[in-house]
Design goal:
The chain is α/β, with parallel strands linked by helices. Helices cover 43% and strands 16% of the residues. The chain has 13 helices and twelve strands. The chain is globular, with a radius of gyration of 20 Å.
C-alpha cells in the first residue's frame, strides 16, 4: 500500500508525534510505502495564530499535487483539510475530543468555531478512529461510527539505562500547557516535601512559569525538552510519574512509564482511566486536589513494596498497547477500506 500520513508534527515528545513515529515504523516494517507531511517538512508561518492555518493550506497543496496514494491518514482534524476531495481512502484519527480541547485552551468562541470544522473533518473521512474509549463514546454519541484504536509503544526500543538524579525522584514529562495540568504542578511545588524532587521535562507556553517555580524551589528540577533516549532513563530512575492532565487521550508517556514498571499518579480523566487501575498500578486523583496528589506521592515514597507491585501490574497491562498488536488494527482498517 501507498500511505500518506498528515500530522501537525512528527518529532518531539508530544503524543501525536510519537504515535505517528510508531505507526510509520510499523507500516514500513511490513513493507508498505509511507510518506509524512508535517510542519517539520512543510511551509508554515512561525507566528502563533498563523502557524496552524498556514500548515493546513500548505498540506492541502502538497497533497493535491503529490503522488497517488491508497490511504491518506490525518492524525488531527486540523490535518483533514488536506485530504478533502482526494480519491484515496481517507482516515482521520482523533487523539482526544478536539473541540473540547480548543475550548479549554481558548474559550467558548474558539470551541464553537472548532466544532464546526470538526464536523466537516468527520464528514470528509471514510473512517474515523479514536485513541481513547472516552473520545470513542463522545463521537459515537454524535451518530458517527468510529473505530477504537489506542496509542501504542514499541517496548523493545526503550533504553534500559537508569538516571536517578535524586534519592527520591518523581517526574512529569509533557507539553507545558494548561490542559496538561501545569498549574497543578506549580501549586504542588508549594507543599511537596523537600526530600522529594520533582523532575519536569518538556516545553510549551507555560515554560517561563515552570522556570520560575524551579528557581524558587530547590526540589523542582526543570530540564526543558529532552529526546526520548534521555527521557526514558529519567523515568526509570523515578518512583512515580505524575500526570495531572485536565484532558488526556492514551498518553504515550504513561505507556512508557508502564513499560518501565513505574507507578503512575494520574488525573481521573479521559484515557488515563484506561491505563491506571486505581490501587493496582497507580492512583487516579482529582487534578485540582493538590493535597490528594501530594498524599499519594508521599505514600509511594515511603512504600517500596507498593512501588514494586504497581510496577509489576503495569508490565502486565502494557502488553495490550504494543505496536505489534495495535499496528495490525490499522492495517486491517486500511485493507477493509480498499476492498
Amino acid at each position: 500500500m501507498k500511505i500518506l500520513i498528515i500530522s501537525p508534527t512528527q518529532s518531539g515528545i508530544g503524543g501525536t508525534a510519537k504515535h505517528v513515529q510508531g505507526l510509520t515504523n510499523y507500516l514500513e516494517s511490513k513493507n508498505h510505502f509511507v510518506k509524512i507531511i508535517s510542519s517539520e517538512n512543510t511551509f508554515t508561518i512561525p507566528i502563533k495564530k498563523l502557524k496552524n492555518p498556514s500548515f493546513m493550506l500548505s498540506a492541502l497543496i502538497k497533497t493535491k499535487f503529490g503522488k497517488n496514494y491508497d490511504i491518506i491518514h490525518a492524525h488531527h482534524p486540523m490535518a483533514a483539510l488536506a485530504f478533502k476531495g482526494s480519491s484515496a481512502k481517507k482516515v482521520v484519527t482523533f487523539h482526544g475530543v478536539f473541540s473540547n480541547q480548543i475550548g479549554m485552551l481558548h474559550g467558548k468562541t474558539a470551541q464553537n468555531l472548532s466544532n464546526k470544522y470538526e464536523q466537516n473533518a468527520l464528514k470528509w473521512a471514510d473512517a474515523i478512529t479514536t485513541g481513547s474509549k472516552d473520545s470513542f463514546d463522545y463521537y459515537s454519541n454524535q451518530g458517527y461510527h468510529p473505530y477504537y484504536i489506542p496509542n501504542a509503544i514499541e517496548i523493545d526500543s526503550l533504553p534500559l539505562d537508569i538516571n536517578q538524579k535524586y534519592e527520591k525522584q518523581i517526574i512529569f514529562v509533557g507539553r507545558l500547557s494548561k490542559e496538561k495540568g501545569i498549574k497543578s504542578l506549580i501549586r504542588l511545588s508549594e507543599i511537596l516535601p523537600k526530600n522529594i524532587h520533582l523532575v519536569i521535562v518538556g516545553s510549551g507556553p507555560l515554560e517561563n512559569e515552570i522556570k520560575k517555580t524551579a528557581k524558587d524551589h530547590t526540589n523542582i528540577d526543570f530540564l526543558g525538552y529532552l529526546p526520548k533516549n534521555k527521557v526514558i532513563p529519567l523515568i526509570r530512575g523515578s518512583f512515580a510519574l505524575i500526570q495531572p492532565s485536565l484532558a488526556e487521550g492514551i498518553s504515550t508517556t504513561m505507556l512508557e512509564a508502564m513499560a518501565c514498571k513505574i507507578p503512575i499518579i494520574a488525573s481521573n480523566v479521559g484515557g488515563n482511566k484506561e491505563l491506571v487501575i486505581n490501587d493496582e498500578n497507580g492512583f487516579l486523583v482529582n487534578p485540582e486536589s493538590i493535597n490528594e496528589i501530594n498524599e499519594k506521592i508521599i505514600e509511594l515514597s515511603e512504600n517500596k513494596i507498593l512501588v514494586k507491585n504497581f510496577g509489576q501490574k503495569s508490565s502486565e497491562l502494557i502488553k495490550n498497547f504494543e505496536w505489534v498488536n495495535i499496528g495490525k488494527k490499522y492495517l486491517e482498517l486500511y485493507e477493509s477500506l480498499l476492498i
